[in-house]
What we know:
The structure is a single chain. By secondary structure, this protein is an alpha+beta fold. The chain is built from two helices and five strands. The longest helix has 27 residues, at 95-121. The chain is flat, with a radius of gyration of 35 Å. The model has no long low-confidence stretch (mean pLDDT 88).
Amino acid sequence: xxxxxxxxxxxxxxxxxGELTVKVTCSYCTFRLVGFPEESTTTYKSTGRPPGxxxxxxxxxxxxxxxxxxxxxxxLKGTLxxxxxxxxxxxxxxxxxxxxxxxxxxxxxxxxxxxxxxDFLNHNFPDS
Length: 128
């Protein structure tokens, strides 16, 4: 059965302490003694190379470094001109265009259902 004890530094009650425990220090006092862990400030740092450069058969950066499939080839440094990368322009649809497209799809499904009903009423059955 666990018991509760007071912290030896500040007097806070610490729950679920073992039976053989003599003194206890609460988590607040422990953090005060040790210090809070510093937050890591790892942020993304751009290399200046285009996305997917390491998948290219041959890539030359602006400093003249030559890479074959992402591996640097120091023998060829400065012998080739920098690789020009064409960026694909992504066409984004507006919310209005998305709604219009969805409306047109629903209309097409409705037309198909109406045609199916007309064919049924006119006894035009598909070959089955």
